[in-house]
Write a structure and sequence with these properties.
Layout lengths: L7 E5 L2 E5 L6 H4 L6 E7 L6 H12 L9 H10 L7 E7 L9 H18 L2 E2 L5 E2 L2 E7 L4 H12 L2
Parallel strand pairs: 2-7, 3-4, 4-7
Antiparallel strand pairs: 1-2, 5-6
Length: 158
């Protein structure tokens, strides 16, 4: 969706890309009932892999056994047993500013996010609406919208 205020695109029912000025259709992201957990990660300032791990540690209250590496982040986000909830929402602001000088690790993080979303996706709610149990909103600058959108479309459709 493109509006005068910004751009918003649903890559999957549970994965959305937005610019900073976009208006989010919150009713599509969080069900009206149930226990919801929202993790907010600020991409700006995530200049190293350790910065990324720290931001996810803080946002998801990762368990003490988290191993501070990509496989550990993947495993923890696919499990979430220490953080029981009916639905999870991950909002990453400035996703386009994460690991600006390390495209390989940045793509690794994006792969993990995409796989976690797929793993938790498509939960049918009693009212008939399908949504992911793990929703993702990636917020970026207007100038990087198409790049982020293309990257996640490719990851989610492969």
């Amino acid at each position: 969706m493109v509006t005068e205020e910004g751009r918003w695109a649903a890559i999957k029912p549970w994965c959305h890309i937005a610019t900073h000025r976009a208006h989010a259709p919150v009713n599509e992201l969080i069900p009206a009932e149930g226990l919801n957990f929202v993790a907010s990660v600020e991409g700006a300032g995530a200049l190293s892999v350790d910065d990324v791990f720290q931001k996810f540690w803080d946002a998801f209250r990762l368990p003490d056994y988290f191993g501070w590496n990509w496989p550990a982040l993947h495993d923890c986000l696919r499990d979430l047993s220490w953080l029981p909830s009916d639905q999870y929402l991950l909002v990453i602001s400035d996703v386009d500013k994460i690991l600006p000088d390390d495209q390989e690790d940045r793509l690794q993080l994006f792969r993990i996010i995409a796989e976690v979303g797929r793993k938790w996706s498509y939960v049918k709610h009693p009212e008939g609406m399908e949504a992911g149990k793990f929703g993702i909103v990636l917020v970026c600058d207007e100038s990087n919208f198409e790049e982020i959108r293309h990257t996640f479309e490719k990851l989610l459709n492969s």
